[in-house]
Amino acid sequence: MTRPQLLRLGLFQMAAGGLSVLFLGVLNRVMRVELGLDLLVVGLLVGGGHYLGALVAIPFGHFSDVHRIGGYRRTLYILLGVTLTGLILALSPWVARWLAPAATPLNVAAVFLFFLLEGVATFVAGTAYLALIADRTDRAERGPATGLVWTLMMVGIIVTGVGAALFMRIYAFERMVTLFTGGFAVALLLAVVALWRQEPRSRAELHRRHESLRAALTLLARSQHSRHFAVFLMVGMFSYFMHDVILEPFGGEVFGLPPAETTLFNTYMGVGMVAGMVLGGMLLIPRMGKRRVAGLGCWIMVAAFGSLAASGFSQSESMLVAIITLLGLGAGFFTVGSVSLMMDMTSSQHTGLFVGAWTLVQALAKGPASLLSGGLQGAFLAAGALPGQAYGAVFALEAAGLLMAILLLHRVGVRRFQYEIGSFWELATENLD
Predict the structure, then answer these.
(1) Ranges assigned E (strand) in 266-396
(2) Domain annotation for the chain: domains and CATH numbers
């Protein structure tokens, strides 16, 4: 894949980053602050519905492996997914306003199904998109490709965040409708430009058209290296994302920083992540390999979380900005290394199946991580810890989790995985088809 093609393909990820800001950021805040919905209800509707949609990743990934639409394995699935996601986003201000004055259990259940559909559409599009990148690149190209594409996602997040903040400086329902409708239109346009003539059209019969989902799942479950990689992703992602809901409260409660300063934590983290993705994808992966870059990211995050824990226990904020930037750098290396490795942990006939599995694992890690970190911080406080000690203990647990992820990463081998999959497949299909 040429660099211009890859840059154009990355526009989809830029659109996805922008949609995530509107949906998980702006809508989340408006439902809680301006519309007065209970925070637990908002979290259940927006976050719960979104992440539960990841359950479709494995069956859909397998379906796209063996069923074309109009001669395409991935492209039209991506477009269908992003169109449905955008439509739900455009309708969500009206749905939120309808729910706010009458948040009965029945109405909440109906809105949950509405947002669950957003999650399903998002993960359908995302799974097919990652499978398309894996289909269109070889092992040597995937590191730089991942670095570039994920950097564009961060650009989408930053640009949308700044633009939405300026546009919504004063809340008005009409402004929110305009913002979300415009976001849908821009995302759809970027998706069409990104995908135009990226995937070759073919009417040829797909290999193993008769294979069942049961056979494919058996293949996935029987692979020892698939299990090792899944556990590594789960532990690494879970340990990293535990910081998500406590980092800004940590700055405010322990150091007395105002909201304007703690909000900048996201900027420091973003700068570090972009640097990590660009350096990791373009420079380090071709020289060190994907597994080593993912491991380097884990080690840097261990150091960063250890430093945050020390800051909490000592109540010293002198190095806080540098530590958060370092955390972002480690997260950038970890992301680009593990996602590139994820694309290698597939087989040519089952790209969508394996990408779907790794996507589901990441969603299962991200969802509960935030809930547990807040619960642990509260438990440490209840046990008599000071606020800085309670936050520091959670950060120390995150560092310990990432050390465990490093140990698990040593058990992951792409070549051994490929050999294992090749050996298992014929036996699995003979027994189950």
Answers:
(1) none
(2) 1-206 (1.20.1250.20), 208-433 (1.20.1250.20)
